[in-house]
């Protein structure tokens, strides 16, 4: 839960502080600020897995899909 | 004065000129929720609920120790007691913000309080006191509107003398041996203060509402109650057995429509006319900070021949030039409201409630009310505290100073918050200032950050408010100095930047 989250004195100006503040806003927006540290790890791991799988799929298959779509609509010669 | 007019053979009397009343500038803003904040709030609740299911699963199958209440092993075939949604909410959502609610205080709830520090173990299931006491926390949450919650001064000395004379307990109900002379003195003084015929007091404010509404209405009567009425009024309406219709908050057109429908249709089966129609409204609504549009309600009451029950729990002592409540604020004579109810907990710094009105109403309640017959009457030091604070408010310069200070504090704080860019609900003159922070995570972070900067605030979340509209509710007090309020505004501004809750910008 959010008990072990660092309390901010004021909006941080240094680079490291700014990145910490961005992570804090990410936790607040998704709602994991209220969870225990291990639950946060579980959520972050699942999210990173999901995102990396999506990116890999896009990287591997998107060009083929775009080629097929364009040639189907006749905008490009096969 | 407009001249008498003749129309269709009827002579209508001349209309009296309307005095300059606050109704001219009566505008309350209830800004709708920004869409992205609603979505983020639902995402928050969704994620927390998902993890709640995960934790329940782990607890049920023994991977994690179950701290919640559960049936004993030998109660296998019995209907389960612990499976409602409310428990799910308490276990998985409320407990995670446990350090923000129920903070124990160890001093008088004045402008500055002492809070006992707690350390939470096991994700909110239990805590222990670290032994440290946080001193000098500015109190922005108590209903201490005129600053009478003090442990020294005129009122406290008078209470001590009362204990020396009467002792602390009354040991009887009002109908038996518990009717003391200071009760009669208090009722007479309260009736004179409110400018009505008579008044009756009870020991508990909640019980005043819930035990006396059944005395006034019964089966065959209709109650029109506002959407956001307090739990005590809702309980009283349910206990009475009358039919209850709810109209939209402070919406006079809706009230008129429902009144007309009720009178035209009559009782549900049989279409008989209603025995009595009672409109129940509050002076100041504590969750929204809005003030009831009383002149319109009284206009409707006269037109449709209904009765009005006005609950002035938060407005007595806090509104009006001499603190006589919402009737003085609008310039209406109190005799126009049929039943005026109020509590002594907020502005008078004591406990208990009263109902005031015509002599026949008050005598009826004295004889028939459950609270008068069965409940123990008000304790003598509490009664004496109310008498001395009433004396201060109505008859001394100090009282006038406090009322003016409350009004100026309210104005300054509300304008300050609005300038910073927060969404603030309600009327500009009400002493309750709710600022909206829609998401539960932000609400928890806000309260913790404020405590670390030395300010104690009250945050309210789901069951008391709609699910998307969690808020922080500031209660302004006459005991807070300008410096306190300015420091509070600075702290709120810096937290607002960190948490990004300045939604108007």
From TrEMBL, chain A:
Annotated GO biological process: ceramide biosynthetic process
Source domain of life: Eukaryota
GO cellular component terms attached to this protein's record: endoplasmic reticulum membrane; serine palmitoyltransferase complex
InterPro entries: Ser_palmitoyltrfase_ssu-like (IPR024512), SPT_small_subunit (IPR051900)
Pathway: Lipid metabolism; sphingolipid metabolism; Sphingolipid metabolism
Any Pfam family the entry gives: SPT_ssu-like
Annotated transmembrane regions: 15-35, 41-62
Membrane topology field: Multi-pass membrane protein
Keywords of this entry: Endoplasmic reticulum, Lipid metabolism, Membrane, Sphingolipid metabolism, Transmembrane, Transmembrane helix
UniProt subcellular location: Endoplasmic reticulum membrane
Membership in a protein family: Belongs to the SPTSS family. SPTSSA subfamily.
UniProt-recorded name of the protein: Serine palmitoyltransferase small subunit B
Organism annotation: Ciona intestinalis
């Amino acid at each position: 839960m959010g008990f072990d989250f660092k309390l901010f004195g004021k909006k941080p100006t240094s680079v490291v502080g700014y990145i910490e503040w961005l992570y804090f806003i990410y936790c607040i927006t998704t709602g994991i600020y209220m969870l225990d540290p291990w639950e946060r790890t579980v959520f972050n791991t699942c999210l990173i897995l999901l995102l990396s799988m999506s990116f890999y799929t896009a990287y591997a298959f998107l060009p083929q899909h775009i080629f097929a779509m364009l040639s189907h609509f006749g905008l490009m010669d096969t | 004065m407009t001249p008498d007019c003749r129309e269709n053979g009827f002579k209508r009397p001349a209309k009296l000129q309307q005095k300059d009343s606050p109704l001219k500038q009566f505008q309350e803003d209830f800004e709708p929720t920004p869409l992205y904040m609603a979505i983020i709030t639902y995402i928050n609740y969704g994620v927390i609920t998902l993890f709640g299911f995960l934790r329940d699963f782990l607890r049920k199958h023994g991977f994690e120790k179950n701290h919640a209440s559960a049936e004993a092993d030998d109660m296998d075939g019995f209907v389960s007691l612990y499976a409602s949604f409310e428990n799910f909410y308490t276990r998985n959502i409320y407990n995670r913000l446990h350090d923000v609610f129920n903070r124990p205080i160890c001093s008088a709830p004045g402008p500055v309080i002492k809070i006992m520090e707690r350390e939470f173990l096991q994700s909110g299931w239990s805590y222990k006191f670290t032994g440290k006491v946080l001193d000098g926390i500015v109190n922005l949450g108590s209903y201490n509107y005129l600053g009478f919650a003090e442990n020294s001064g005129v009122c406290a000395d008078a209470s001590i003398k009362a204990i020396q004379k009467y002792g602390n307990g009354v040991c009887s109900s009002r109908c038996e041996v518990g009717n003391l002379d200071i009760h009669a003195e208090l009722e007479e003084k309260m009736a004179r203060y409110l400018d009505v015929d008579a008044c009756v007091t009870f020991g508990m404010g909640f019980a005043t509402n819930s035990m006396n509404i059944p005395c006034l209405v019964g089966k065959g009567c209709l109650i029109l109650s506002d959407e956001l009425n307090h739990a005590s009024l809702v309980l009283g309406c349910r206990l009475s057995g009358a039919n209850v219709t709810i109209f939209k908050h402070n919406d006079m057109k809706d009230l008129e429509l429902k009144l007309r429908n009720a009178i035209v249709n009559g009782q549900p089966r049989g279409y008989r006319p209603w025995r009595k129609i009672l409109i129940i409204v509050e002076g100041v609504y504590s969750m929204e900070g809005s003030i009831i549009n009383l002149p319109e309600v009284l206009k409707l009451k006269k037109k449709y021949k209904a009765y009005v029950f006005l609950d002035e729990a938060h407005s007595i002592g806090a509104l009006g030039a001499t603190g006589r409540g919402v009737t003085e604020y609008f310039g209406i004579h109190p005799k126009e409201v049929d039943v005026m109810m109020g509590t002594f907990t907020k502005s008078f710094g004591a406990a208990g409630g009263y109902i005031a009105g015509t002599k026949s109403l008050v005598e009826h309640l004295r004889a028939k009310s459950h609270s008068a017959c069965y409940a123990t009457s008000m304790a003598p030091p509490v009664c004496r505290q109310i008498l001395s604070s009433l004396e201060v408010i109505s008859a001394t310069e100090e009282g006038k100073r406090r009322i003016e200070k409350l009004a100026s504090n309210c104005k300054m704080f509300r304008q300050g918050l609005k300038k910073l860019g927060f969404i603030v609900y309600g009327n500009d003159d009400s002493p309750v200032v709710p600022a909206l922070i829609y998401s539960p995570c932000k609400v928890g972070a806000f309260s913790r950050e404020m405590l670390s900067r030395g300010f104690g605030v009250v945050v309210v979340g789901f069951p008391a408010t709609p699910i998307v509209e969690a808020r922080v509710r500031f209660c302004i007090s006459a005991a807070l100095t300008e410096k306190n309020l300015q420091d509070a505004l600075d702290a709120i501004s810096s937290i607002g930047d960190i948490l990004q809750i300045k939604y108007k910008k």
